From TrEMBL:
InterPro entries: MeTrfase_TrmA_AS, NA-bd_OB-fold, SAM-dependent_MTases_sf, U5_MeTrfase_fam. It comes from the Bacteria. This is 23S rRNA (Uracil1939-C5)-methyltransferase. Belongs to the class I-like SAM-binding methyltransferase superfamily. RNA M5U methyltransferase family. Keywords: 4Fe-4S, Iron, Iron-sulfur, Metal-binding, Methyltransferase, S-adenosyl-L-methionine, Transferase. Its EC number is 2.1.1.190. The active site is at residue 366.
Length: 413
């Protein structure tokens, strides 16, 4: 059904929201204050035309915007965009009854993302490489991408050719590209089992193209140079397809907040440590115990520490913190805690932190909703929330990082 709608506000995913008959209608690419026509289907509608545009509407930065599903909100003026993204954190905290000092958004500039999760597909018309259209399996070939580092975009032809070499299926497959200090780290999955001919052709092409590493379904096919990332004074080779923060400057902004808050701690527990993003920088001032469930990430962290110089002791422990969190008694051996869990958060671990006497806690999160839930647990356990800083590293999307800093007065013993 086609109708005219008045947009009341922006939703949490960047859609324009219409209040209608006690419910809500979500219209992508519409802005607050606009009058639009849209084709409605249940609680969603497809934008057809903007009749009265918002003064905050701007020209999108990319030709693929509205077609590609990577960005949701390139059409909003920058100041309003930053306010909206900060508000996602503010509203999540308020929903848990938390009034906090939420700082300004740490902005993410264009052309800064070092990691691209492409979809590739081999078809009768050739190899396609790009992003899926929003709410669809339709693949949009990418000719430009203003969020990515220019080097990734410039290498699109090389990457597309490599995807064509390794494609041993007609189905779409994942093609993850990370720009490291020594070259591209390419991790493909679900592209079909590579034959010996594919292995030889891929190896020759990777070497010729000066790609650092190619892996398929976790198996390293060829690694002419180890892909390297720097965390403080240490260099790390991340595991194939392993977690890496998307934007280097955003990573450093988070690390600076965490390190500054824990600067007085002699011993720090870094929970959900990954490959050492925070551990290896915290070790400049503190002894660090890094706890992580992924063995390959933990091994990368340990190697990075052993080949670094000038760091205090770093110990590692493989442990599934979702199933077996560190107990409050174990945590009391530390002066500070940093934790950066997946999107599901760290509910059970926070219940143990809340019972502990650890004076300084730095919580890093990519999900405001689970962060707010976890902070509520810590506050109810006696922690005071000192600050929350939202950080943007997924430009023009609804995703936002945040760093929350907490303190608990020391008990007299």
């Amino acid at each position: 059904m086609t109708a005219r709608f008045e947009i009341a506000r922006l939703g949490a995913h960047g859609d324009g929201v219409v209040d209608a008959n006690g419910g809500h209608i979500f219209i992508p690419f519409a802005l607050p204050g606009e009058t639009v026509t849209a084709a409605r289907e249940k609680d969603r509608a497809q934008l057809l035309a903007v009749i009265e545009a918002s003064p905050q509407r701007v020209e999108p930065a990319c030709r693929h915007f509205t077609e590609c599903g990577g960005c949701a909100i390139q059409h909003l003026e920058d100041g309003a965009y930053r306010d909206w993204k900060r508000s996602l954190v503010v509203h999540a905290l308020k929903a848990r009854g938390i009034e906090a000092s939420v700082g300004d958004l740490v902005a993410c500039p264009p052309h800064s993302r070092r990691r691209a999760a492409f979809t590739a597909r081999n078809t009768e018309t050739g190899i396609h490489l790009g992003y899926n259209k929003a709410f669809s399996h339709t693949l949009v070939d990418i000719e430009e991408c203003p969020v990515l580092l220019p080097g990734i975009v410039e290498a699109a032809g090389i990457l597309r050719h490599l995807a064509g070499i390794i494609a041993n299926t007609s189905k779409p497959f994942r093609f993850l590209v990370t720009s490291t200090e020594t070259g591209f780290d390419v991790a493909a999955s679900d592209c079909g089992k590579p034959t010996e001919a594919i292995r030889r052709a891929a190896t020759d092409f990777v070497i010729k193209s000066k790609i650092a590493r190619l892996s398929i379904d976790g198996e390293i096919i060829v690694e002419p140079v180890k892909p390297m990332l720097t965390f403080g004074t240490a260099t790390v080779t991340p595991p194939t397809g392993g977690f890496v923060q998307a934007v280097a400057d955003a990573e450093q902004a988070m690390a600076s907040l965490v390190i500054g808050h824990l600067r007085k701690a002699k011993r720090v527990a870094d929970l959900f440590s990954g490959s050492g993003t925070f551990s290896l920088q915290l070790a400049t001032n503190s002894e660090v115990h890094a706890v992580e469930g992924d063995a390959s990430a933990l091994a990368a962290l340990d190697r990075g520490f052993r080949f670094a110089s000038g760091l205090k002791r770093v110990t590692v422990e493989r442990r599934d913190l979702d199933r077996r969190p560190l107990t409050f008694k174990e945590l009391n051996a530390f002066d500070g805690i940093a934790f950066d869990p997946p999107r599901a958060g760290a509910e059970d671990q926070c219940k143990q932190i809340a019972r502990s006497d650890v004076p300084y806690v730095a919580a890093v999160s990519c999900n405001p909703a689970t962060l707010a839930r976890d902070l509520r647990i810590l506050i109810d356990g006696g922690y005071a929330l000192k600050s929350v800083t939202p950080i943007d590293q997924f430009l023009w999307s609804h995703h936002v990082e945040a760093v929350a800093l907490l303190e608990k007065p020391k008990k007299r013993r």
